[in-house]
Protein: N-terminal amino-acid N(alpha)-acetyltransferase NatA
Organism: Schistocephalus solidus
Amino acid sequence: PFNGPYLTRCMVRYSPVCVPISKSSSATKHCTVVRASYEEYTMNIRNAKPTDLFSMRDCNLDCLPENYVMKYYFYHGLSWPQLSYIAEEADGEIVGYVLAKMEEDPDDLPYGHITSLAVKRSHRRLGLAKTLMTMASRAMVENFQARYVSLHVRKSNRAALSLYKKTLNFAVSEIEPKYYADGEDAYAMKKDLKPFWDLYAPSDLHFKAEKEKNKHD
C-alpha cells in the first residue's frame, strides 16, 4: 500500500498591492497594482503521524466550527494510521489535513468515513482538499477494501457542498435533522470507490469483494 509522501505543485497568486496616487485620505480608492503574478512551488502531502495530531487540531480550530477533543484525534491516528493525511509547507507548517476512519458495521459493506477536512484560508483553491481526499480514499481501498466513503456537511455550507458534489463526485444520500450541536441539519453524502478498486485494490480481492457485494444486494 502507498503511504509515502506525495509532492504536488501549486500555483499561488500574489494579492495585488495598492499604492496611493496622492496623500489624501480617499486616495486608497485609487490604486495601482504593482504586483499580481503567479509562483509555482511544491507542497508536501503525506500520511499523518502521531506527532502531527496537535497541529491538525490547531488547523481545525482555525478553520472549522466543528472541533474535537485531542483523544478523538488520537483515536483516529492510532486506530487507522493509514487513512489520515496532512499538507505541509517546506518548513513543516501544516496548512491542511483530512481525518478519516473506517466504519465498523457488520451488516454493511466495508466503508470509510471522512471525519474532518480542513485547509487554511491562505491555501485554498490550490487543489489541496481534492488531493487530501483522493489520498485518503485510495488508502481506504488499499488497506481496508472500502467499497464507498461517507461524510457529513452542514446544509448551510455551500462552498463545501459544491466541493463534494462538483469536484469530488459525492452524492447526497439523506438529510440528518439537527446533526450538529447547534441544531443545524446535515447532508449525509456518499461516494462509490469502485474507480479506486479498479486502480489500487489487490487483484486477489476482487472476486471476494464481488461475492460480498452480491450478498448485500
